[in-house]
Amino acid sequence: MTQKNRPLGVLMLETGFDRIPGDIGNPDTFDFPVIYRTVTGATSKRVVHQQDSGLIDLFAEAAADLVREGAVAITTSCGFLARFQFELSARISVPFTASAIDYLNRLSDTHSSVAVITADAGALNANVLGPTALAPTAIVGMENSRAFRSAIIEETMKLDPAAVEREVVEVARQLARQHPELDAVVLECTNLPPYRAAITEVLQIPIYDSVALARGLMADTVKDHGNAADT
Length: 231
Description:
The protein has about 230 residues and is α/β, with parallel strands linked by helices. It contains nine helices and seven strands. The strands form two sheets. The protein has a four-stranded parallel beta sheet. Strands 2-1-3 form a three-stranded parallel beta sheet, with helices on both faces. Helix 7 (about 160-180) packs parallel to helix 8 (about 195-205). The model has no long low-confidence stretch (mean pLDDT about 95).
């Protein structure tokens, strides 16, 4: 298997909702191979609300399994794992990025006003964000959006993509009204990229998400391998 055809590894939370195309948890989202490993015990509650550091060992062990299966780079299915970027990257032997929150470090030279759309604005605190190069202008959450909350946060109803899209569009409109100065948006939640086009239509500014970050990670990995082979 060539480096170009080796897979991305994705560390998955233990969830039960549907992963539709565009979601990092759906392999059809990508045009390269992807392998998944669910981290048993890594529930949304433990990751998002408890920010349980006891999960670090479990994620590191699952990442090692993905590397043994051939993964050349690794990411996750939850942006709140930005909280453990440093600890996990130190224990993962291939390129790793935990979260689209990392864009707040990558965009400081090109953007001046960036908002974050997250699954839960109340939980996206300073511990999760860390010392980013670019402080978000606004953080808005989906926790009060009924279709999103019931399917993704509470897992009490089946995911209704059309209803979630309407809710995401309303959040985007709220951002446009309250922060006309925005020049980019970061989607923390890995379940929001399926609605990226709808958000872009409202805001007409660049949208950065976990899927784009994973694609960039894989492109950099293949490029670095090619450069190493040439030396």
